[in-house]
Amino acid sequence: MAKYDVRVRYAFEGTYTVVAEDQEEAIQMVSEECGLVLGGNIHTILDDEDVDWNFGVHPDMQLLSVTQRNGNESSASIYFSGRIEELREDIINEIRQLLHSHCMDEIRFPKEESDPVWVIWFDKNGDPYECRVTGFM
C-alpha cells in the first residue's frame, strides 16, 4: 500500500441578486458583504430586501493532481481535462453573450488568403490543435 496526496477543488457557482446604484456597487457589495464558509451556510450582512441568492448545495469537484509518496521521492500526475472543459464552456458562453449584446447571431471572416484567422484549441487531454476559422455562430 502507498500514500497518495489527491488535490481537488470544490466550486460552488450561483448568483447573488443585489439592489445597487450601478455595476461597481453591486460587485463591491457581493465582494465585501457576501460569502461562504466550509461547513457553514451562504451568508451576507446585507439587508434581506437588498439581496437574494440562488446556489446549489452540492459543489462541482475538479481533480487537480495525484502525487504518490515514496519516502523522499514523489511522482505527480496533473489533471487538466476538467479545467479545459470549464474554460471551453466559459469561452463559448462569452462569445454567445457578446453576439447577443450586439444583436448578432453570427460573424463571418473575409476569405482573404493574406490574413486568415487561426485558432489553437486543446482537446480534453490538453493536446493542441489548430484550424482556420471562417466564422462562428
Textual characterization of the structure:
With 137 residues, this protein is of the alpha+beta class. It folds into two domains: 1-79, no CATH class; 80-137, no CATH class. Helices cover 23% and strands 42% of the residues. The chain contains two helices and eleven strands, in the order ββαβββββαββββ. The protein has helices spanning 23-33, 81-101; strands at 3-11, 14-18, 34-36, 42-44, 51-55, 60-70, 73-78, 107-108, 117-122, 128-133, 135-136. The chain has a three-stranded antiparallel beta sheet, with no helix packed on it. It has a two-stranded antiparallel ribbon with strand order 2-5. A hairpin with a 5-residue loop joins strand 9 and strand 10. The longest helix has 21 residues, at 81-101. It is flat and about 60 Å long. The termini are far apart. The model has no long low-confidence stretch (mean pLDDT 81).
